[in-house]
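Let us practice reading a record.
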Amino acid sequence: MDEPIHQPHDKLFKASFSDPANAAAFLKSRVSPELAAGIEWESLRLEPGSFIDSRFRHSESDLLFSAPFGQTGQPKTSRCHFHFLLEHLSSPVPLIALRLLCYKTRIWEECLARAKASGEPCRGLPVVMAVVVAQNDGRWEISPRFADLFDIPEGFEEIVRPFIPDFSFSLLQLGEIPYDAIAGTPAGILTLRVLKADRSGELLGDEVWDEALMMEVARECFERVLRYLMRGGIDTQAFEARVEKIIEPQLRSTTMTLAEQYIEKGIVKGREEGREESRKADILEALEIRFGTVPEGVRDAVESAGGQQRLRELHRAAITSATLEEFAGAL
């Protein structure tokens, strides 16, 4: 529990949802009742590997699951896959469907490679369902359909449709969903509530500090969440006041003990540092959306920059610069 966390969002997300029970309870709430009835959820398994582009690893984290599916009451010889993606930038990602298509292709290639290595006959490509959790603090006005990315002249939609691949993805925007509408196991619900509260500045709110919910999660999960909360740079006095409000004696005692241990070990990270890291991620994302691949030199310069005012200026430059060279001149 004492190793450095460079991407706390990813660590918390993966630690909670790598558990198939937590993933199954959440994913079941994101598909239609008809599809959910055909999935053998108790056999959901975590598949190895990550399929994210290296240049997006600062803003995304993913998990891949598979489970048998088919008609209820019939033998389930096919497997469907769920690609579970956490996008933790606050700004919209208009081309995220294009990224998902790339990830789907990588998943299919991996499935085919595994089948070939095992000597199994290929029965066809598995269905891959993408589920995106956006850790935003406002609504993203983007379509969950890949075909909507295309620039098609009016009147030609039906004519070109046979030539356009299409799929939809499930998009859960934490910024617009109420806390009490988040579904899943207690561990999954608490994790997503914390990720939502982090963006909206409500880490000390009642929705996160729901005693009934906290008492239901395993101690390991509670420790993980508390560690994440304290790494967010919570004001010490405000945190202590929040702890004093806890009614359940054992929960209050455990929280205070763990908090003291984390402070003694130097685990608490300043709020300013956390905000700077988020701002840097936003700058790099803006550059990637506008100009494509960001050279390592520019990326390193952004990562080395510091100070909220300086980072605000760079974020503005990333949005307004006509070329990548113009932005580089502002570094």
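A brief commentary: The chain has 14 helices and five strands.
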